[in-house]
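From the shared-data thread, chain only:
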Amino acid sequence: MNTVQRKRWSGIAFALLLPLAVGGLAAALAAGGMARFGALNQPPLTPPGWLFPVVWTVLYLLMGYAGYLLRAELPLNDAARRNRRAALFLYALQLFFNFVWPLLFFRAGLYAFAFLWLLVLWLLLFLLIRAAAKTRKLAAVLLLPYLAWVTFAGYLNLMIAVLN
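Structure, as tokens:
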């Protein structure tokens, strides 16, 4: 493997591991609230508990590869470079909001505030997908399942806030 290939694969590995690490740390920090969550009144359509880590792992991998594509893109003109910077900023910001949400919801039990936080995350994702589509269409497509899941999580979060 030559230097260029090693650099590419190390970039991909970093991009995949970053959201996995952020999500794993948030899950570890919020783990104490899982018992309380299990005792709450659950809304219709609540998936079984084992499904959440499976879905999030897949979403973090898709998110990571989308981040790699955004970072690896080498636009030629100034407008494309500005758009890429905006997309990467939105990527980092949504990752921060993604990290904090389980702390608000599971650890602190602030269900209504967590819902509002999730709405901001949804908006950031929407803006990220729009920016990514201008820079690297595949990155935008890879983020669509994440947006769909956050939409579903918003329903679950709102219903938990209402029912409890």
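The first helix runs from residue 3 to 30.
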